[in-house]
Specification:
Layout: H1 21-24, H2 26-47, H3 56-76, H4 80-86, H5 95-116, H6 126-180, H7 193-220, H8 225-238, H9 251-270, H10 280-291
Helix pairs in contact: 2-3, 2-6, 3-6, 5-8, 5-9, 6-7, 6-8, 6-10, 7-8, 7-9
């Protein structure tokens, strides 16, 4: 007798392939590499008495950008690095947004200094002061350093965290390692323990606000890393305004970033919801588009 049971055709396994640890935990892998390279890259030169500034290149291009690109390639496959870097070229997001990004920090910082009586006339004059600020923001800061730093922080880490935790959660979670990697910079020079503690305290207090501001820029510009890179450079340049009197970590800049974050948050709530992702679900969906592997 012959069996009446029909032969079953072979069906190829179409289930998901096993993932490696980097694919399962890309943000954690990035942080291990970034901190593992960044801390020695800044700490060892400081320990032997070398200035930290030249070694910022190691921090930005090796510890941060290099780690983000390697993890992106391993986690998401071919084309993922190109997709991430393409976000550095997004610049069409409105004149008003550009004005906020470029001029929000210095205008608010100078205004707060004027109200508090700590505004002085710069020795080189206001025209030179403005030119110096624009160069430090748009050329030296953004193009040389901060655009690539934020490709790692905002483009890789914060964007991926936003998929799971939304704008607020991603800002708070990114602020912690963002502050940690800057710790060696606060140990440079002859500072007392109390001065170091105050500086680090202000850093970790301001970081969540600042990351929230950058997260709003990401959402409102379609994920532009150019926007957040220039905003980061603007923060740094505002700290060096020669017309503002203050101590280490000038308090006027801290108040300015808090006020700018508040103003942008209020402004995006007043505008029609259709014009920007509002709410955790919409924020997560937007970030998922930026971070999805190519072709998925």
């Amino acid at each position: 007798m012959t069996s009446s049971t029909p032969l079953q055709p072979h069906v190829a396994d179409t289930g998901p392939r096993p993932q490696n640890v980097i694919q399962r935990h890309p943000v954690a892998a990035f942080l291990v590499l970034a901190l593992g390279i960044g801390w020695p890259g800044l700490g060892i030169p400081l320990a032997v008495g070398l200035p930290a500034a030249p070694f910022l290149l190691v921090l930005v291009f090796v510890a941060l950008l290099g780690s983000a690109l390697v993890v992106t390639r391993v986690a998401d496959g071919p084309g993922a690095v190109r997709k991430l870097l393409s976000r550095t070229l997004i610049w069409r997001f409105g004149v008003g947004r550009w004005a906020v990004i470029v001029f929000g920090m210095p205008v608010l910082t100078v205004a707060i200094a004027a109200v508090s009586g700590t505004l002085t006339r710069p020795e080189s004059g206001w025209l030179v002061e403005t030119g110096t600020y624009l160069f430090a923001t748009l050329i030296f800061g953004a193009l040389a350093l901060n655009l690539w730093e934020e490709t790692a922080w905002a483009g890789f880490a914060q964007s991926r965290l936003m998929v799971r935790h939304g704008l607020l959660g991603a800002a708070v979670l990114t602020a912690v390692p963002f502050g940690l990697i800057h710790i060696p910079l606060y140990l440079e020079g002859d500072q007392t323990p109390s001065q170091i503690a105050i500086g680090l305290g202000l850093l970790f207090a301001a970081a969540p606000l600042y990351r929230y501001l950058l997260g709003m820029h990401l959402l409102d510009t379609g994920g532009s890393l150019l926007a957040v890179g220039v905003q980061h450079a603007s923060w740094n340049a505002a700290l060096k305004l020669g017309s503002v009197e203050g101590g280490a970590w000038e308090w006027q800049v801290l108040v300015a970033v808090a006020l700018l974050t508040l103003l942008v948050a209020v402004g995006r709530r007043l505008r029609p919801p259709r014009s920007r992702p509002i709410g955790r679900d919409a924020e997560s969906a937007a970030a998922a588009q930026w971070t999805a592997p190519p072709g998925r």
